[in-house]
Records
---
Amino acid sequence: MNVLIADKFEEEGIAALREAGCAVTIRTGLKDAALADAVRESECEVLIVRSTKVGKEVLAASSALSLIIRAGSGVDTIDVESATTRGIRVCNCPGMNSVAVAELTIGLMIALDRRIVDETDDLRRGVWNKKEYSKARGLKGRTLGIVGMGRIGYEVARRAAAFEMRLIYSDVIARPDLEAELGIRRVELPDLLREADFVTLHVPGGSDTTHLIGAEQLALMKPTAFLLNCARGGIVDEKALAVAIGRGALAGAALDVYEIEPGAADTEFKDPTPKVPRVYGTHHIGASTEQAQLAVAEEVVRIVTAYMTSGKYLNCVNPPKAAIVL
Amino acid sequence: MRVLIVDEFEEQGVAALRAAGCEVFQLTGLKDAALAAAVRDCRCEVLIVRSTRVSAEVLAASKHLALVVRAGAGYDTIDVAAASRRSVFVANCPGRNAVAVAELTFGLILALDRLIVDGTVDLRAGRWNKKLYSEAMGLKGRTLGVIGTGRIGRAVIRRAQAFEMNVLAWSRSLDAAGVKELCVEPRESIEAVAADCDILTLHLAATDQTRKRVGSTVFEAMKPDSMLINTSRGDLLDYDALRQAVADKRLRVGLDVFEREPKEGVAAFADPIMQTEGVVYGTHHIGASTRQAQAAIAEETVRIVCSFLRNGTVENCVNRRQKTPARFMLLVRHRNRPGVLAHTLGAISDAGVNVEEMENVISEGAEAACARITLNARLGDAVISRIETGHEHVFSVTQSPLID
């Protein structure tokens, strides 16, 4: 079976695919027409992508193409509707990166509380300011509000519990099992925003959650609270966020994802939000640890192998003759 | 009791001291002679400090000063020897900042793994580099090496386990029971931990034995590209060797303490470690400085002062002599009346023997008591007999040698 990998992929995964009998072609850094050409030329049945966008043009490039695997969880970079129309199945690897995202979330939380970016920046410039930086509040005893109690939310909660934080969450689905395990309490989003010292978002992207956190929601937050978005750009109305931080409605924010987000290979960053003081940012790397990539690669191999040996689609987001289940 | 607070201190703590009946004075930013003058002028019995230095001059400033409380763990800013010479008690609040230090330790670990500082600096400059920043290792499944398993080390270990890390540990006092309780793998030396871990974090006290203990032998043992965190004391590290290791082994380093650390709150910072080519993140010796830690320390400080106020005992005293020169103990059982102790002490004094420590324990009903007096030399039989028979309210006298 011909497999085309269009993004960086673990060596161990490539080796396992070859071992399973796949002819693997690796072409990274391609976009749109160039990617369509590669799909056509490689006559691949399976296309494996991470952040590379898969649009109509790519989907129409070759009749051989029958399975797209997103080596990650979100499929908003793939035109699933067009894929469905053409009978191309899309599978993902949900949950494999939840630990990596949770680790980044806790890291950003402490970095904001202790102002690690500004502190290092100052020391590098020869400035010592113990007086200013001694004003952190600490995590123990503070309230963490988790918006979206899926796999990532759960991993965040487990770690925050070890930091002796008070935990609350909001979700359309109640999780009494987790409430018992972690002593976490379900509240409505407005109450969560009012009570939390840290608000962290772990809901899927898409039209339902666009600007879930806007001016109105930010106004509910404590002036000492921080907002974290390691989920998807667009969930937070960043213009409103900049304004709210500017007038002291909240203390700051950390973002791993942006409304104006460059592609993986781009070098220029145009989103103005990280220029706001007390906004920390990373480069959409929530899922990007060796640990997560290994876990994702293992899952991709499992999906390809199942398809090869039995024609089954594991983790399919557009299964044949069924409604799209996201 | 008059209490002088010369550093920032939690409002709730001040309120609690006042509620306990203390007269509280707050003067911040004083040093040396000015501090000595303040101690003299307010005639305080208790002095509460955080980072302010307490010199021999300050300790000698007023005869009233009886107790110095360091609202924090380390007391190397206090001239304890000078305090001991004047019988000024020094007490500290150990372990109250363990959580704050453990939180910072994890903040630095995660910041270094995900390059949060460089990532933010790049975004602020309009640079996007997802490729570079996607190279993190992740914590789950990695091995954390913890040096020192006191309160801070333990707080770090608990958090590491929630991150599903393996934990190796070494400390001078780690025994089989500790290993079992902490669920860690012990190693026989700092170097042995360093050799097997991905992240090494130091939580040792600063002593003469630990000065520059972590140097080239430890760095040579460490894996290339591994991580070193020091949130304990600048003294522990050989910073020259560390700079070399950052260059040779691409160690990622997170530091809250430095070799050349300014004493002031705001100052120029010239330690070359932060100019080293490589990934070195730093904070401003703020490990213990969170509101949570300050509240916990203030609570402990209030407990120490209140105990001293109510019954004269000093909790967490760091300069009480553990082994006194006492060699004999006298137990005097007596009726609880005036003059018994004066009679007893008079006889001891006439014999030229020195009292080291004493205590008088009253029995239920307050009719009788037992005085326990320790002595630097043995009393002769004649003196014992004089104490026992020379006062109508003395029941019995027993002298026995103190065993080490």
---
Amino acid sequence: MSRVQNTLIESVRKVVGWVPERWLPGGTPDPLIGRHGAVGTQLAQLDGPQKVRGAARFAAEVPLEGLCYAALVNSPVTRGRITRLDTAAAEAAPGVLLVLTYRNMPRLGLVPLMGVTNLGAVGNSALPILQDDQIRYNGQVMALVLAETQQQADHAARLIDLSVDTAPALSDFQAAKPEARTPASILVERNEQSAGDAEAALRQAAFSTDATYTTPGHNHAAIELHGVTAHWTGNRLVLHDATQAVAPTAAALAKLFGLRREDVRVLSPFVGGGFGAKGFWDHQVLAVAAARMVDRPVRLMLSREAVFRMVGGRSPTEQRVAIGADAEGRFTALIHTGYSVMPPYSASPEQYTLGTRSLYRAQSYRFGQKHLDLDIVPNTFMRAPGESVGSFAVESAVDELAHAMDIDPVELRLRNEPETHPLTGTPFSQRALATAWRQGADRFGWDARSTMPRARRDGEWLLGMGCAAGNFPYVRMPSGALRIRLTRDGQATLSTSAQDMGMGTATVQTQHAADRLGLPLDAITFEMGDSDLPAAPVAGGSSQTVSIAAAIAAAASKLTVELLRLAGNASPLAGLRAGEVRLAEGGLVCIEDPTRRETYGDILTRAGRDEISVTETGAPPLEIFKYAMLSHSANFCEVRVSDVTGELRVTRLLGVFDVGTILNPRMAVSQLRGGMIMGLGMALSEEVLFDERSGRIMNPGLADYHIPAHLDVPEIDVTWTGIPDPRSPLGARGIGEIGITGVAAAIANAVFNATGKRLRDLPLTLDRLIGAEGA
Amino acid sequence: MAITINGTEVPLPEDPRMSLAEFLRDGLHLTGTKIGCNQGGCGACTVLIDGQRVLSCLTLAVQAEGREVTTIEGLSSGDDLHPLQEAFIAHDGFQCGYCTPGQICAATAMLRELAEGMPSSVTGDLSRPAPLTAEEIRERMSGNLCRCGAHNGIIAAILQVAQEGAA
């Protein structure tokens, strides 16, 4: 990201800052905020019956006539050049239809990397896909074998004889530090930012903490493997994919294979978990190319090992957080810097310092991130990229300072709540973190915590409590399109290419549409997951719900204008303008005089129409430049640590969320809990073990990369402030990622309270608990 | 040379290398059985063989010869759902739905194991039947991973069905 971008973004912020509120999206709060309707009810997931029956059909499950199966060969070395690639035995094996290598792969261009300056792009890797004899990372695809059955393909893949002239590789985190790059920007933010002389203020502070925290690589580990079923009919391509980016994937494939966009259809009605991983990687391109070459439908489902090797995860980080405070605990200096891995062919900067920039008020600041260029599978966005691991560092540091000052850690945080964005002075659209802290402390029984570590014991078990804040920005994507089709029988169908990987998108937007259009829930059909529908952007950054909500609001406004035009002079609504009516009770109602009204069916009938259809995109998300818009959380945790074995058990976990309007409490609890459980995994066990000598991941499987299992997960308490954001559609902010933030720090802080051992390196495994120095 | 799958006799696949999971999914289009790792690490492929839970990705189809296999598709018929399926919906025991069939199949067999008094590693007193507690269910369901984080809902759903069955 460039300096030009910094200037551009800062100019937009400045201009938008001067523009009167009422001219902007969110300037006038959404009239649906606070209205009691379908939004806010506990509707169960609409596709629940399909899912519990096993009838929801995922991408690698579509049955097609003549389907053949693919298997891949991945590089066992990190850097080098292929010197021998003998495919004869594989080609001669029973059932084999094709062996695809760099020699016979169609010559294709590069996939544009996704990024804030290219929102339509979808690539996670800027490396060529099977185009030459060069090996650039460990696990890169060397060959694809296509056969009549999966068993034949798997067998033949093992017959490929590969020899490599290996080259030196960059795979050592510490060794790469001297060559670290300092990017000009991190996503839409200027990277290096400071106010005052933070280092001097730190040295002069009455109290201070200054420490290094590390987090390892993480893997998304969605239970559904990445899989596609690719199918050509002449020059038309259909791809059944598991993707968080339906329309952008279709656009990328059209460009890569030289097709018209309308000749590519990507279908992704169900996705078996994504968390950032279900994007555009090499496997889609390989399957599409292979299907074209044999002129048959192709199924390619990655092995679990291949998911680790070919789909990047979260980068490891090494972070320095230093805080200085005066005698009253007011921060005089806040420093957050560090290193993460981001090769130039990756799209994801792991923005671990961004959350810290708005979390606390301080008299001086210094922030900045450096990127290490290692030869790895391109790292990518994983649930709350940045804030997940950044909050571990900063919220551990706040706890360290609180202990050093003998101040309650909740109280220390309350003393440093900012009134406006600490760096820019921009007003917050809504921020009630202090409310969340007070609500949570009361609910959790925080006053039972001992201020002295190692003071509570139950036999061999040491007991402790900890807390930590989390935050995550509000994002609304520009240019999400949506169609509303209204029929004479009073039914509405809403269509957008967006997708659902378990968040309940269709369910929540059905609730929203019922309120927006003034129709009962059973009159609404929400269709999605198909690139032939109006194009929606990638589901990422917790942006999809508000992006679709804005598109529905915009389409409903357009629909109002069209309906008034159709209503004509014979209607009781004659002469009214769009601003003078609202959509309610199955039709249009005059706001001033509610006796003037007409149903959708009557309007269409009189006009001799069976239906009306409008397509519209949401207004540009200028509100994010006018206000500081973020969600916050206050996490509380209780742990037991065995004084004998170091075994760590999380017994209680509470998250209090300040996330705007809750659209569906049942699913919101699930979504927020899900994030917290990923935070629990981050704290307790999750670690990509990377061999720094060879550049190879050593635990590429679910038996060795440990995500939380049932016995690890206590009953998790979730609640919220419930205060709407006046600047967002429905008053909502996305909740897909905020749940993971702060959780690992709350657990580590509770471990300190239980044991007196300060662990600054994740995960908090037994060896570290036994070996760590006591306080 | 046949397997009974959801009450219907099916000839064995020709290729003896085919796992039961692959046979169900690719051979019979019974795609309710999921593959999440193909190495026995996640439990998504759990089915019942003669009423016992089995990882179908680690079972060759030919090993099930002459036995009764029940998959998620065989747990209910028509619009009627199995009590566990109903409870999973009621307790929001899933998000993406991918691990769900394996969770439900495992829970079906697990409840029988518990009812028969089989102990687990968290059972305190081995001289008596294991108690019906959330902790026992968590331990016994730990072979079925969920990444969306529906754990609380899954355990609540199973506990409710277990308690209704015990009542």
